[in-house]
Amino acid sequence: MTEGEKDHSTVPPEAWRPATRLADAIRRPIERFLQVEAAGGIILLVAAAIALIWANSGFHQSYEALWHTYITIGIGDWTLRKDLHFWINEGLMTVFFLVVGLEIKREIVQGALADWSRAALPIAAAIGGMLVPAGIYLLINPTGPTQEGWGVPMATDIAFAVGVLMLLGKRVSPSMRVLLLTLAIIDDIGAILVIAVFYSQGINPQGFGIAFAGLLLLFAMQRLGTRQVWIYFIPFAVVWTGLLVAGVHPTIAGVILGLATPVRAWMGTRGFLGIARDALDDFQAKAMRGAADHDLIQPLHNLAFAQKEAISPAVRLENALHTWVAYVIMPLFALANAGVNLGLVDFTASGSSAVLWGTILGLAVGKPLGVMLAAFIAVRLRLCVLPAGVTWISVLIVGSVAGIGFTMAIFIAELAFTNVGLLYVAKLGVLIATALAAMVGLVAGRMFLKLPGEGDQGPTDSDVEASTDVWLSGALQRATASHSLGQLR
Q: What's residue 27's pLDDT?
């Protein structure tokens, strides 16, 4: 076979084929697993289980020692020395919040939150699902240091919740999935506001000055037409540092950058097709003349430019980060934070039982109660209607699954409690409530949601399809591709 007659092999010419076949045999089962809709939630669950087992084993000291390993980064005289637990919770989780910010921006501009008729039901359900759990917690913890944990049961883990819902398979209609996903995204907005307003301490005005300078740099780069995503790490790092100095949780920097990322494509589909045709024609003409490889770089560069700018920076960035968030960052967070040493949990300490019951009842009972009550009121007031494929049983099951707090609830618990004993109790409450909410959601789904073709399914396929056209957005495509996150919300 001559140089010009090479086939379109997927194996590079320098590769050793037996080695590539072995790599494919190892990679394909992993890729198939990662394509399962509930994979993100499953990995999160496995990471939490490993953390619990490790923290309660004979090697529990190594678990604590690992997360308290100090890492120092810096430039010149400026250095920041923090333990591994900090770099995961305040560093890597900033990327998680960046993806949340991208989701929120896209949903507001193009998705389910862009139209009141679509957004009213999940907004009402999410507000009820935040206020009722917080109210239940405050009824049990009206005063004292335990009161600080009121924000813990407000949060929904988008990855875990959608992952559990996906385990019900075809019993779950597309509209029901969108309802949960949109509810979880609005829940994320509420959690972000709670973190920024109520769990920021020791405000330092100088830090806000640094963060504002970072924002000015960010918007200046946008006005100059800077398109290279990696360059935006500079203003991102400045905003993150400023918020850290200011006393505001630095993960909010991720949300700010996500909300500032453009959601409209530069070239779009038409621009891509035009540039791609010209680039391919140029490439073909040069190749037929026998041009050297370096002469082919320009048309390939033009084609790569068209490919990159055919979609918006927000979608491109979210697509690049999503896998890392779902399969690396969130499991790492679970591994670092879900390891509750049950031997160190003091149930006799003042306020511990109130924190435990406030967290469990807030999530496992307050979430479905709040979601159901708020949705019912919104429908009765004719602010919205239930979409085709969603019944009141469906709303109750969505509310039950929304009681899976996990990542966000543990994250807020870390901010709420400086007392290690109360923190451990709160984490234990989150884990128990998460397990209860998941089991209730799965059991109720199996009992009350019917498979297609079983009995009276209510709306027809055309009804569901029409409803899906109204409700379905890019967020659903993301959710069914991997979440769980879901959410991840």
A: 63
